[in-house]
UniProtKB/TrEMBL annotation:
Keywords: Signal
Top-level division of the source organism's lineage: Bacteria
Matches recorded under InterPro entries: ClpP/crotonase-like_dom_sf, PDZ, PDZ_sf, Tail-specific_protease
Keyword Cell cycle recorded: no
Signal peptide span: 1-24
Regions annotated as coiled coil: none
UniProt key word Signal: yes
PDZ domain span: 419-476
Protein name: S41 family peptidase
Length: 744
């Protein structure tokens, strides 16, 4: 088939919040809700597939926001159609009819009719109303010899008399007899997206968008061919043949299109049902000729009828066109831009509190981007589609810039992705721009201090490792952590808790955080810690790698740099065991590390599944699968026992490092379950200069097992203890040492 024939919650600090854990199942959709969902689907499909959106000349955000009030207020199908036509107007082009597609009726079936009828003036009427079988092919081939010998003009009637249509090869076979030089048929180009290219900054995912152009056919004349003028009769019941378009473009043919040319017969198109009985159809491709021009037009557009044969109005009109005698001129079509223009979203920074329509547009946009490009929609606690209408309704209650930003933050959190992050001045102020240099973690079910600032200010204020935090600024510590975890979200319960704990000490620069803490002796103390944007917990002071004893090596992957890999193996390569601390975030060493550990000779370390959204694809994006390779090393692989320490702080590249090490060697994981979050981050831009980041592609174990929302499970569970923290011990490392020495 040729290209052209393809068809294709609660209020908190004045902010509107809701609890993920308390989320109720969605209520049945009302007609108004269903219309909102239909409008969002329309905005999504036009945004990512309509050719006009690759020119950077159409502000589709503004088009939807400006028309949303009228679209929601329409009371009748006719009013809704008028509002939808206004919405689609900026896309331009006469090939964009709004009205629901009404296919022309089939012609009456006449199985006995000859495929060729001779008309006065040596004009041949070729009736290709239905799919030809083998015997009819033979009859048509025999008739072609007579057509070449005597025809002064040929009328090809392509209006079908049933669901089956003439194969394009039959038409090409006929046309090859009637040209005197090769003709390149037009093709279709259409938009495609390999992941979602970030709107702010860049991503290691190498996400990209562009056009794909289908191959076209080259129609060569047969040995006995003779050029003859043609007229093609068509209606909207079958795709318009590229042969007809190419010969019209060449000036050798005319097109009689009953009812006019329809987008449904010219280009691949999509239809979105906005509500029952009201649909919008639009093209998702552009016609391309060999000189780079695009376009299509009918030479005549008579009314639709079901008459066929020599006395039909359509055939009589074709005869008249052929009788004009002169060769028709080639249509003058515009040239397409050689390259698509990247869609860079507008941040609308002045919209701190957008109007309701723009707030709803922000929800539609976030929903549409994630619906198309978020790779982990499956397995969510609530289907992503069900999140749209509730958050659109929630925007009706917003009355401050903070409310607006928090609704978007809460919506993003429902993705259950620890990579989700919303950059907003209002959210930053709400959470606080500064914090003391203290790290908290859940230890034995309690919120404990596990790290202190490098400057020692926390220690001077009386805070110690192992202190249990009971409250922060008068708010119960557990309640504060849960509130923030619900707002910020995460891939797993531990991932959400980690986000809550990581933000619970934030506040105003220069303002003290007042903590009630319980010491190991049971005494409760009040500690005041000054917040500062520059304060950080102290990093490990040890070297990136060292011997723990004569036979056990240790490397801290939070510190180890790629250029130190070879030196580390020079120093530790003869040990019996190698302990890799991956509690935290690495420095890009996972790929080289796996190469030096690859006793299994593994060829890949992780499997990727990237969303690929194509205008020629289905409703759901396809997935492009690939395996990330482990590169060979000139060195012999390390043959000792490999142990990796993990916990909930192991996220993204840390988990990716674990995947590669797992594929390369029989590693033993000791510690806690990891965050369950992996895949290069991308982002979208919403009104008010709000940036929402999320995971852009799915990553799995090399053998296909899932990672997201599951995490890497330890072979030997181990966790810090309050006693160990207070004594300055690393309980997890001690457990790893026991395993290294005893195998137990």
């Amino acid at each position: 088939m040729t290209a052209i024939s393809l068809r294709v919650a609660a209020f908190a600090a004045g902010a509107l919040l809701c609890s993920l854990s308390a989320a109720a199942p969605p209520a049945a959709r009302t007609p108004a809700d269903q219309r909102l969902l239909g409008l969002a689907e329309l905005w999504r499909d036009v945004k990512f597939y309509h050719p006009a959106l690759a020119t950077a000349k159409v502000d589709w955000d503004a088009a939807m926001a400006n028309n949303l009030p009228a679209l929601q207020a329409a009371r009748t199908p006719q009013e809704l159609q008028t509002a939808l036509a206004q919405l689609m107007a900026p896309l331009g082009g006469p090939e964009l009819p709004f009205a629901p597609y009404q296919p022309a009726p089939y012609l009456p079936r006449d199985a006995a009719a000859s495929p060729v009828e001779w008309l006065p003036g040596e004009l041949a009427l070729v009736r290709l109303h239905h799919a030809t079988n083998r015997s009819e092919d033979t009859a048509l081939v025999a008739a072609q010899r007579e057509i070449v010998a005597r025809a002064r003009g040929v009328i090809v009637d392509l209006r079908p008399d049933g669901p089956a249509v003439v194969e394009e090869r039959v038409l090409q076979q006929l046309a090859a007899q009637l040209i005197d030089s090769p003709v390149q048929l037009p093709a279709v180009r259409y938009r495609t997206h390999s992941g979602y290219r970030p709107q702010r900054g860049d991503s290691s995912g190498n996400y990209r968008s562009g056009f794909e152009i289908m191959e076209s056919d080259l129609l060569s004349p047969s040995r006995t061919a003779r050029p003859v003028p043609l007229v093609f009769i068509v209606n909207n019941r079958r795709p318009l043949s590229p042969v007809a378009l190419a010969l019209q473009r060449r000036g050798q043919a005319r097109i009689v299109a009953q009812g006019g040319l329809s987008v449904a017969t010219l280009l691949p198109h999509r239809a979105v049902m906005v509500e029952e009985g009201v649909a919008v159809r639009f093209p998702v491709g552009e016609l391309v000729y060999e000189d780079g021009s695009t376009g299509m037009a009918a030479d005549a557009s008579p009314p639709v009828d079901q008459a066929a044969g020599a006395d039909s109005p359509a055939v009589k009109l074709a005869v008249k066109l052929l009788g004009e005698g002169k060769r028709p001129g080639a249509p003058d079509y515009p040239r397409l831009a050689a390259m698509p223009m990247r869609m860079v979203e507008k941040p609308y920074p002045d919209m701190q509190l957008p109007t309701l329509a723009w707030r709803q547009l922000a929800v539609i946009k976030l929903w549409a981007v994630a619906d198309t490009f978020f790779p982990y929609k499956e397995g969510m606690a609530q289907p992503w589609q069900d999140s749209l209408v509730p958050f659109l309704r929630r925007m009706e209650q917003v009355n401050s810039p903070l409310d607006y930003a928090l609704v978007l933050q809460q919506m993003a959190a429902t993705l259950q992705d620890s990579h989700v992050g919303l950059r907003s001045a209002e959210i930053d102020k709400y959470l606080g721009l500064a914090a003391p240099g203290v790290r908290l973690a859940r230890v034995e079910g309690k919120i404990a201090v596990v790290g202190l600032d490098a400057a020692g200010a926390a220690g001077q204020a009386g805070l110690q490792r192992g202190d249990v935090v009971l409250s922060v600024d008068g708010e119960d510590a557990d309640a504060r952590a849960r509130r923030l975890a619900d707002l910020l979200g995460g891939s797993t319960p531990a991932g959400r808790d980690l986000k809550g704990l990581g933000n619970m000490l934030r506040g105003e620069e220069g303002k003290a955080a007042v903590l009630q803490v319980e010491r190991g002796d049971g005494q409760v103390r009040t500690v005041s810690l000054m917040r500062s944007a520059s304060a950080r917990p102290a990093p490990p002071s040890a070297a990136p790698y060292r011997l723990l004893d004569a036979r056990i090596g240790y490397a801290d992957l939070n510190l180890l740099q790629p250029q130190q890999i070879d030196a580390m193996f020079d120093a530790l390569g003869q040990t019996d065991s190698l302990i890799l601390n991956m509690r935290g975030y690495p420095k890009g060493t996972g790929w080289m590390l796996a190469s030096r550990l690859n006793v299994r000779g593994a060829r890949s370390g992780a499997a990727f599944m990237r969303p690929v959204a194509s205008a020629m694809g289905g409703r759901e994006p396809a997935r492009q699968a690939s395996l990330q390779p482990i590169m060979p090393s000139k060195h012999a692989p390390y043959s000792g026992k490999v142990i990796m320490l993990l916990d909930e702080t192991s996220i993204s590249q840390a988990e990716h490092t674990a995947l590669f090490v797992e594929a390369a060697t029989p590693v033993t994981f000791i510690g806690g379950v990891t965050s369950g979050t992996n895949g290069d981050v991308t982002n979208t831009l919403l009104p008010g200069n709000i940036v929402v980041g999320f995971t852009g592609q799915e990553v799995r174990h090399a053998d296909g097992r899932p990672l997201q929302r599951v995490g890497i499970q330890p072979h030997i569970p181990s966790a810090p203890t309050l006693a160990g923290l207070r004594a300055g011990r690393d309980d997890v490392l001690e457990r790893a040492l026991t395993f290294a020495r005893s195998g137990k």
